[in-house]
Design a protein that fits this description.
Blueprint lengths: L4 E6 L9 H13 L1 H4 L3 E4 L13 H11 L4 E8 L5 H14 L4 E6 L4 H6 L7 H18 L1 E5 L4 E6 L12 E5 L3 H10 L3 E3 L5 H17 L4 H8 L3 E8 L3 H18 L15 H6 L3 E4 L1 H15 L3 E5 L7 H15 L4
Parallel strand pairs: 1-2, 1-11, 2-3, 3-4, 4-7, 7-8, 8-9, 9-10, 9-11
Antiparallel strand pairs: 5-6
Helix pairs in contact: 1-3, 3-4, 4-6, 7-8, 8-9, 12-13
Length: 340
């Protein structure tokens, strides 16, 4: 089995038993361990108006992670592109690329929660059109270093991008996929690696990878390029390790159930919209629980079945206790990752 790659995911969820300080300080401290543990990437989320994610601008978190790390790459998962002025987004992310000495990976998405659009005064119906225009502006700024733009949503006089990103021609871009096949097809057509959310089950993940390859082939993209991009593909998985399978199940339940009972977007992740019993989510196999050996076995089976070479590990789902997150990360990095 070819070598796998591993990152972490940080949603910054504020469970009822946590303070704002707990959320921000604990998640950021967890990213500070990644270099020594051998993880390759920290993927950071942004949300607003929802307690399941209290960081409204992932650039703020990314700058903090850049100051706490030296090697781990810093991923945006995702920037809600339609909600932000594209010049501001391009400037902020370029600055983070400079601060981190070229460690930025940019995950692009449209946003899925109508409430988040409402709170920013952006009509949800304009989501797709704003996304397309903003992506054009940001890519132009990064590649050419300047822009003059008159569009439907934004008018920008001739302006130079300052600072400019370190990575050339621009930071790597990833397509984040929750459920949409259209996003997979966009990525395959445009030569972008994909990060799958926890929603697609193993069968759907395998199907999406086949769709990605087929779309790239139809678009005339070289097979070698497609396989190189596939090597960077990963999927988000919730992971918890304990001394026994039952202990892992018992410990993880409170946070996981709070998250899915609180989250209004279960349908986006392929789950029944109504809250379900704990076993419903475990049976979906987006959660990998147990001893280190049991988690290792699950990942090996997953890799062999889907062909996906990367896992984005969500250790702190639903406000897990800080010491348990550390225990799981220690076990995963010392007993699971070296064997994969």
């Amino acid at each position: 089995m070819s070598k796998m790659h591993f990152g972490t995911f940080h949603l910054f969820s504020k469970a009822p038993w946590m303070s704002d300080r707990d959320v921000l300080h604990h998640e950021l401290e967890q990213t500070s361990w990644l270099d020594d543990m051998g993880f390759e990437e920290a993927w950071l989320a942004e949300h607003n108006a929802r307690v399941y994610g209290i960081v409204g601008s992932l650039q703020v978190a990314a700058a903090a992670v850049a100051s706490r790390t030296k090697k781990v790459r810093i991923g945006a998962a995702v920037t809600r592109v339609p909600l932000h002025h594209p010049l501001h987004t391009a400037e902020d992310l370029a600055a983070i690329d400079v601060m981190s000495d070229g460690r930025l990976d940019w995950g692009i998405g449209k946003g899925y929660d109508p409430l988040e659009f409402e709170t920013y005064g952006v009509p949800f119906s304009e989501r797709d059109a704003r996304w397309e225009e903003a992506i054009h502006i940001i890519f132009t700024l990064w590649k050419e270093g300047h822009i003059k733009h008159e569009g439907k949503f934004w008018t920008i006089p001739e302006v130079e991008l300052l600072p400019k990103p370190v990575q050339k021609p621009m930071p790597p871009v990833f397509m984040m996929v929750t459920q949409s096949d259209a996003s997979v097809e966009f990525a395959g057509k445009n030569g972008l690696p994909v990060i799958l959310g926890q929603g697609p089950d193993w069968d759907d993940a395998k199907r999406k990878i086949a769709l990605y390859r087929a779309t790239a082939r139809t678009a005339g993209r070289p097979e070698a390029e497609t396989e190189a991009l596939m090597a960077r593909t990963a999927q988000l998985k919730m992971i918890h390790i304990a001394d026994s399978s039952q202990q892992a199940r018992d410990e993880f339940e409170k946070g996981l159930m709070w998250y899915f009972q609180t989250s209004s977007n279960r349908g986006m992740f392929g789950f029944n919209v109504e809250p379900q019993p704990y076993d419903y989510y475990l049976n979906h196999r987006s959660v990998m629980l147990g001893t280190a050996q049991e988690v290792l076995d699950q990942i090996q089976e997953y890799k062999e079945y889907t062909g996906i070479p990367g896992i984005v590990c969500w250790f702190n789902c639903g406000g897990q206790p800080h010491d348990r997150v550390r225990r799981t990360m220690d076990a995963f990095s010392s007993k699971v990752m070296p064997k994969l």
